[in-house]
């Protein structure tokens, strides 16, 4: 009984200092177990040869030497990742363009906005399937029907190594553009009308108004669009797995897909090599992560 | 308002805009419209090569009936529900607590822990894949819904904490101080003062997490295998190999698989967009 009262009073005395840690505990434990530790474990595994079941064999930097010393699949994946990064960023201007088009007050415009946006909530697996049918060669694919109507030769986008990656990126741009659009629509809603009127009186209009008055006010929306688009580009996996499964001739692989393929391949699990690929991908991402966190940290300091 | 409001522009452009709007929408949704058309066509139209003409008969009920009664689709859908709903609940519980701790209290390491949650959120999944799969195997949870749920809760806690903490930061702090002066204990402040004010954040996060988890494919194929525990995103691929080249059935199946998050979005639009665009306005 006596211990119970002393304990209770200790808790009472330190309540404000202790409570946050009690509230944080379950969240931190889960997050550490499933996210933080695995990052370091992957680094550790990448120095080993491991089939996922038996003993790990220490091989030092051998995985990295093989990876960076002329692995053709790795090179294809790396260049495709760069293509994804650069072309995926087109979602930002495209989203801005559509949001400017839709930022009017006419009958039914809310429904139009929702219908333009809803591809974003469809799973990437289904979007991938929908586009792979859209691209089908012959009369079955609507794309070929449409371009045939305008007198162009039919194309087999996903069947040819030169065009397959671009076809997949175009499919990915569809929901991503919708996402950027909704960010900008929200941003446009809060643009200061007095500044716009003042600029109008000064004779600003069209693209000059957009560039000098509107875009600076949309900066927070642009930052978020940039973050989600970069992350999305480097995470691209679902589209590739569903639309081409890396083919034709391995031409659509990206690092995230190649890593999955190596780790859980049909020819035996090469977890060590897969982990090494993941580490390389992580370092590519780290540059961006550092920049994002730095920007957010500046905001936090400003808020104090 | 930018661009110039329609009522202040020329008559021609006003009419042109009204005409352009539906045309642009149809072009934007063209791939989806194609799938919707396929899903109500009969098998015969595909063997006859009548892909884009009028359907020779409307087989919407036959096609969707087959999806629901002659395939594993209902099982996959049910699995998705049993994976998604517990994840949403778990995330909300954990992150309202972490968000409360980080948003209300000043202590050393507060910002550090906050940024750890944000940083973990940006990490590529692949660097977690091998260890998480190994951990799940060692807990005997491989190919179970529980294994998938635990991982999803942990990973989404990063994003949810960011969301909740920023929301709680914006609440009026004097309210909490007043409760403290009254001698209300800290966990009661959480339950009876802060939590009721967080309803909009809870609603927004629930619909967002529901959509994210329902649409997850990568972790579904890494941590589960068969129709016993795979969600619908992974199940659709086995559904498609069952009905290879039967485009009317594959189309109907895809639409069924995609529908729940779409329905959720149209029902809870306000909360969904509020959650998604958090931080897009200062």
Write the layout of secondary structure elements.
The complex is a heterodimer of chains A (304) and B (282).
Chain A: H1 2-13, H2 15-45, E1 48-49, E2 57-58, H3 62-68, H4 72-88, H5 91-102, H6 109-117, H7 124-134, H8 142-149, H9 161-189, H10 193-201, H11 206-217, H12 219-235, H13 238-243, H14 255-263, H15 271-303
Antiparallel strand pairs in A: 1-2
Helix pairs in contact in A: 4-9, 4-12, 4-14, 5-9, 7-9, 9-12, 12-15, 14-15
Chain B: H1 11-28, H2 30-38, H3 43-47, H4 60-69, H5 73-104, H6 110-122, H7 126-138, H8 145-169, H9 173-181, H10 186-197, H11 199-214, H12 218-223, H13 232-242, H14 247-267, H15 269-276
Helix pairs in contact in B: 4-14, 5-8, 5-11, 5-13, 6-8, 8-11, 9-10, 11-14, 11-15, 13-14
Structural features, described:
- The complex is a heterodimer of chains A (304) and B (282).
- The two termini of chain A are 45 Å apart.
- The longest helix of chain A has 33 residues.
- By secondary structure, chain A is an all-alpha fold.
- The radius of gyration of chain A is 25 Å and the shape is flat.
- Chain A has a two-stranded antiparallel sheet.
- Chain A is 73% helix and 1% strand.
- Chain A has 15 helices and two strands.
- Chain A folds into two domains: 44 residues, no CATH class; 233 residues, MetI-like fold (Orthogonal Bundle), CATH 1.10.3720.10.
- The model of chain A has no long low-confidence stretch (mean pLDDT 91).
- By secondary structure, chain B is mostly helical.
- Chain B has two domains: 63 residues, no CATH class; 205 residues, MetI-like (MetI-like fold).
- Chain B starts with 10 loop residues before the first helix and ends in a 6-residue tail after the last helix.
- The longest helix of chain B has 32 residues.
- Chain B is flat and about 80 Å long.
- In chain B, helix 5 packs antiparallel against helix 13.
- Chains A and B meet through helix 2, helix 6, helix 7, helix 8 and helix 9 of A and helix 1, helix 2, helix 5, helix 6 and helix 7 of B.
- Chain A: Its main location: membrane.
- Chain A: Belongs to the binding-protein-dependent transport system permease family.
- Chain A: Keywords: Cell membrane, Membrane, Transmembrane, Transmembrane helix, Transport.
């Amino acid at each position: 009984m006596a211990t119970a009262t002393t304990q209770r009073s200790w808790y009472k005395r330190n309540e404000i200092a202790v409570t946050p840690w009690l509230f944080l505990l379950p969240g931190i434990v889960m997050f550490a177990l499933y996210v933080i530790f695995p990052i370091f474990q992957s680094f550790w595994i990448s120095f080993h040869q491991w089939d996922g079941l038996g003993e790990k064999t220490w091989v030092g930097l051998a995985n990295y030497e093989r990876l960076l010393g002329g692995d053709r699949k790795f090179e294809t994946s790396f260049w495709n990742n760069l293509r994804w990064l650069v072309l995926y960023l087109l979602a930002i201007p495209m989203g801005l363009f559509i949001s400017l088009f839709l930022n009017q007050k006419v009958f039914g415009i809310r429904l139009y906005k929702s219908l333009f946006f809803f591809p974003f909530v469809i799973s990437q697996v289904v979007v991938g399937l929908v586009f792979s049918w859209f691209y089908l060669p012959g009369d079955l694919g609507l794309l070929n029907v449409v371009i045939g109507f305008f007198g162009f030769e039919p194309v087999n986008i996903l069947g040819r190594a030169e065009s397959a990656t671009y076809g997949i990126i175009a499919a990915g741009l569809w929901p991503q553009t919708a996402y950027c659009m909704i960010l900008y629509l929200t941003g446009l809603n809060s643009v200061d009308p007095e500044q716009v009127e003042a600029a109008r009186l000064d004779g600003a209009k069209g693209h000059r108004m957009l560039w000098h008055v509107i875009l600076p006010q949309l900066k927070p929306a642009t930052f978020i669009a940039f973050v989600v688009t970069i992350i999305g580009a480097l995470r691209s996996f679902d589209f590739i797995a569903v639309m081409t499964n890396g083919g034709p001739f391995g031409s659509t692989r990206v690092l995230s897909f190649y890593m999955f393929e190596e780790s859980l391949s049909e020819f035996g699990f090469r977890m060590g090599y897969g982990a090494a690929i993941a580490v390389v991908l992580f370092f590519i991402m780290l540059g961006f992560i550092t920049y994002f966190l730095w920007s957010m940290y500046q905001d936090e300091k400003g808020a104090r | 308002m930018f661009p110039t409001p329609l009522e202040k522009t020329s008559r021609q452009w006003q009419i042109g805009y009204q005409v352009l709007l539906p045309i642009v929408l149809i072009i934007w949704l063209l791939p989806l419209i194609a799938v919707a058309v396929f899903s109500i066509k009969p098998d015969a139209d595909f063997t006859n090569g009548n892909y884009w003409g009028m359907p020779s008969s409307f087989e919407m009920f036959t096609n969707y009936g087959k999806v629901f009664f002659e395939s594993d689709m209902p099982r996959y859908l049910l699995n998705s529900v049993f994976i998604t709903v517990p994840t949403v609940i778990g995330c909300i519980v954990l992150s309202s607590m972490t968000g409360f701790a980080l948003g209300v209290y000043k202590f050393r390491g507060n910002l550090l822990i906050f940024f750890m949650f944000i940083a973990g959120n940006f990490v590529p999944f692949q660097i977690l894949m091998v260890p998480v799969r190994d951990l799940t195997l060692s807990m005997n949870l491989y190919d179970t819904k529980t294994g998938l749920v635990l991982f999803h809760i942990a990973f989404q806690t990063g994003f949810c904490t960011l969301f909740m903490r920023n929301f709680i930061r914006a609440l009026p702090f004097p309210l909490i101080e007043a409760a403290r002066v009254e001698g209300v204990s800290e966990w009661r402040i959480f339950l009876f003062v802060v939590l009721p004010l967080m309803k909009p954040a809870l609603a927004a996060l629930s619909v967002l997490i529901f959509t994210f988890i329902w649409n997850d494919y990568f972790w579904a194929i890494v941590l589960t295998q068969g129709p016993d525990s795979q969600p619908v995103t992974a199940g659709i691929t086995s559904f498609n190999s069952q009905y290879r080249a039967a485009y009317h059935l594959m189309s109907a199946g895809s639409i069924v698989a995609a529908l729940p998050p779409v329905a959720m979005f149209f029902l809870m639009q306000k909360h969904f967009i509020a959650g998604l665009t958090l931080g897009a306005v200062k």
